[in-house]
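Progress note, sequence design subtask.
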């Protein structure tokens, strides 16, 4: 396989990433579009998945979401799910125009927050021929109520409102850490111990462009985002849903209930362990192999 740097336009914003091309085999080849989850950058194990897919004969387009990593966009750290959804569609358009890519055999892959986005994209863009969603967010409202203590919700909503007023008056958007640094009680967007261990652990050596900061309104948009509503609309596009049984960041029970709402053709993979374990070790070996088989089956 080979990998090269690429960039493409998404509504006037330049997004940057990698294009993996399979060695040998027939041309044009099928391709999978990939982006990462909430605040994460492509170096956070997306290259590992892409290498498995490319070795299996698929092209892969991996890119950083707008306002993050090596991609352009302002304000930095702004995570707007609907803009990211449209960026997936721009990535599909870009990939469709590449000379060695079969535009009729494009799939999409997402994980965590982007695992939610690909559900929406697959339901609304029929150019997508297969969709793999790993440990996805299903309901922003329900998920937020699992992550935020009940007695803190009113204060969080007050902060959202105050930020809205300040921005209306010309102030820069307020920001919040993605994860706590020293004290688990610090206000942050994703207040779980495994989030802290993932983002501030060894992956930092690979992900040099990641920043532990997002805009506060990114969190507000998270709480209002309901991608699970699109699950019944994905069919007849094939769906693979990968769930981590011990996931408490995007809780497994919400994902499994969402899977029941999807129509055929659909396929479920259940991994042991928590949310971030889907990216490494034995779980990575199982999930990447299942996803490769799924894409090869449905993209040809």
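Output:
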């Amino acid at each position: 396989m080979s990998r090269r740097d690429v960039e493409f336009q998404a509504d006037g914003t330049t997004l940057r990433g990698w294009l993996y091309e399979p060695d040998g085999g027939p041309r044009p080849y099928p391709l999978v579009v990939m982006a990462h989850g909430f605040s994460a950058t492509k170096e956070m194990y997306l290259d590992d998945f892409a290498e498995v897919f490319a070795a299996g004969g698929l092209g892969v387009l991996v890119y950083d979401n707008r306002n993050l990593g090596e991609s352009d966009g302002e304000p930095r750290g702004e995570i707007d799910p609907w803009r990211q959804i449209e960026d997936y569609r721009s990535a599909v358009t870009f990939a469709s125009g590449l000379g060695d890519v079969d535009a009729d055999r494009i799939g999409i892959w997402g994980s965590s927050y982007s695992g939610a986005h690909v559900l929406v994209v697959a339901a609304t863009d029929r150019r997508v021929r297969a969709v793999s969603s790993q440990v996805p967010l299903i309901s922003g409202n329900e998920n937020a109520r699992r992550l935020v203590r009940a007695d803190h919700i009113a204060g969080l909503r007050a902060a959202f409102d105050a930020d809205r007023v300040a921005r209306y008056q010309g102030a820069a958007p307020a920001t919040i850490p993605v994860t706590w640094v020293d004290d688990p009680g610090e206000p942050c967007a994703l207040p779980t111990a495994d989030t802290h261990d993932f983002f501030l652990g060894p992956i930092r050596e690979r992900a040099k462009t990641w920043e532990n900061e997002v805009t506060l309104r990114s969190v507000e948009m998270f709480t209002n985002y309901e991608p699970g509503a699109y699950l019944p609309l994905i069919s007849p596009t094939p769906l693979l849903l990968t769930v981590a049984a011990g996931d408490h960041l995007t809780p497994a029970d919400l994902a499994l209930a969402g899977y029941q709402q999807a129509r055929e053709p659909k396929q479920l993979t259940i991994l042991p362990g928590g949310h971030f374990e889907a990216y490494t070790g034995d779980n990575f070996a199982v999930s990447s192999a299942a996803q490769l088989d799924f894409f090869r089956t449905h993209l040809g």
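The chain has a mean pLDDT of 97. Work on this subtask will continue into the next period as scheduled.
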